[in-house]
Every structure is written in C-alpha cells, then in structure tokens.
Amino acid sequence: MSRKAIVQRSELVTGDLVFFETYKPVPSHSGIYIRNGQFISATSSRGIAIASVNDPFYWGPRFLGARRVLLDPPEQKVLSLFIATRNEP
Fold first, then answer.
1. Which residue, 7, 26, 69, 77, is most buried by CB atoms nearer than 10 A?
2. Structural domain count, the chain
3. CA atoms within 13 Å, Cβ hemisphere of 56
4. Which InterPro entries match (predicted)?
5. pLDDT exceeding 90 applies to what percent of the chain?
6. C-alpha span between 45 and 58 (Å, rounded)
7. Among 82, 66, 65, 76, which residue's Cα sits nearest to residue 2?
C-alpha cells in the first residue's frame, strides 16, 4: 500500500474505507464502500451487511469521513476481482 487520501462523501469510489460514529464520539464503525452509495461492513447483530452511506435514519447522520488507501497495481487487481464477483447475481 502506498498512501492514504481523505475522501469526500460525494467522491467515494469502490474500495474506499468509510467511518461512522455509532456509540462514542470517535470512529466506532467502519466499512468498505462498494458502489451506488452502498458500503459493506460487519455488524454484531446481522453479521456481514450492505447498507447505504446516505441512509437518512442511521448511517447518513453518523458518517464521519472516508479514506482512500491507494494500492499498488497487484493489490488493486485483487480487490477489483473480489468486488466484481461479490456483485454478481
């Protein structure tokens, strides 16, 4: 991995890390942005879940920010293949 960049909510791309404030005033939940306003994360109540970053009732107001970890080309290829296979019907 090379470096990390701060990302605005409107500029999220597949693979960005998203952070939320759930039970304390610091990042207490994180996920990986998938696409189309959605992210995937592990929850204690539902296991792996896909949710909207912009959900007006829960995640939207708790969104703290995002970071982009810029991967070296081989790592980026693996991530892209993983996400492509997870989104197949």
1. 7
2. 1
3. 0
4. NLP_P60_dom, Papain-like_cys_pep_sf, Peptidase_C40
5. 47
6. 15
7. 76
Domain that holds residue 71: 3-86
> Residue 80 gets which letter from DSSP?
H
pLDDT, tens digit (0-9, with 9 covering 90-100), for 37-58: 999 999 888 889 999 999 999 9
Q: Is the pLDDT of residue 36 over 80?
A: yes
Please state the φ and ψ torsions of residue 39, each to the nearest 5 degrees: -135, 160
* Distance in angstroms (rounded) separating the CA atoms of residues 51 and 49: 6
Give me the CATH number covering residue 37: 3.90.1720.10
Exposure of 37 in the CB half-sphere (CA atoms within 13 A): 7
CA pair distance 88, 13, nearest whole angstrom? 18
